[in-house]
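Thread amino acids onto this structure.
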């Protein structure tokens, strides 16, 4: 079991082998012989180690790569490339490490008075010795939602081709939460803004830390109420209603909650088809 912590419970206790998530400045992860390295010390020159926690008592570290003298067995892979190349649990841990290091890098100075910050002794926080401002790792919550309706020939789902996708690729709608807004309000607002569609029955699906660079994706399903699709052209190239047997290119399962939402809907839509519901 993994228990997050920022300091070893007993610094006097004999050192035990740790697992090392070492990143370069471009957030690429170090692998040795294709695996996340394990050892008492990092296998390369690494600086600024942060203890992420203890996994069954074994320390798990995140650290920054210093210099470029890598052993022959070393490879650097992006977080996206690492998905599937290392065990899923380690991929999630790599995302945790990348976010902690990004926060460390971006909060070296107090955002209020400019003084050099210090690491808090017992919390994952940085403190300003001058004005006492505390800075915690940044999380940017975003909602992602799959809107469903009953079409003339069965269940349909609202999918959009976002401008940020490299090619013609569709997914669930998504957007960042505004200050002062509930998650449910955000779902309704984002669907309205991006497609002109009104929804209700906003239902929690699940969540996923998304370390690109520090999002927290919170997934929902929602039901169509009214409206015709009018896309927000700055964000969306194309959007439409699709039945389960005629989907455009979409994520299916895999590394993102978008894929999990679509996979879940496909299961339910196929079931409705076979039962005639
Ligand atoms: Zn300050």
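Threaded sequence (277 positions):
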């Amino acid at each position: 079991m993994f228990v997050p912590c920022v300091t070893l419970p007993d610094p006097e206790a004999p050192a035990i082998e740790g697992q090392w998530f070492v990143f370069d400045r471009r957030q690429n992860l170090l692998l040795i012989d294709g695996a996340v390295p394990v050892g008492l010390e990092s296998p390369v020159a690494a600086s600024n180690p942060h203890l992420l926690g203890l996994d069954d008592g074994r320390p798990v570290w995140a650290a920054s790569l210093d210099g470029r003298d890598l052993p022959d067995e070393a490879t650097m892979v992006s977080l996206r490339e690492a998905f599937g190349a290392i065990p899923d649990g380690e991929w999630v841990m790599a995302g945790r490490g990348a976010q902690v290091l990004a926060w460390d890098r971006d909060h070296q100075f107090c955002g209020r008075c400019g003084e050099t910050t210090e690491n808090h002794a017992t919390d994952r926080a940085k403190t300003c010795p001058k004005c006492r401002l505390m800075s915690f790792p940044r999380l940017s919550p975003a909602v992602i939602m799959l809107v469903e309706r009953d079409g003339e020939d069965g269940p349909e789902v609202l999918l959009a081709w976002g401008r940020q996708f490299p090619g013609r690729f569709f997914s669930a709608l998504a957007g960042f939460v505004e200050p002062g807004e509930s998650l449910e309000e955000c779902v309704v607002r984002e669907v309205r803004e991006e497609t002109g569609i009104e929804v209700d029955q906003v239902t929690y699906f699940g969540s996923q830390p998304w370390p690109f660079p520090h999002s927290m994706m919170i997934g929902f399903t929602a039901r169509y109420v009214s409206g015709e699709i009018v896309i927000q052209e700055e964000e969306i190239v194309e959007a439409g209603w699709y039945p389960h047997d005629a989907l455009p290119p979409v994520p299916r399962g895999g590394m993102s909650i978008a894929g999990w939402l679509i996979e879940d809907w496909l299961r339910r839509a196929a079931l409705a088809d076979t039962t005639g519901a």
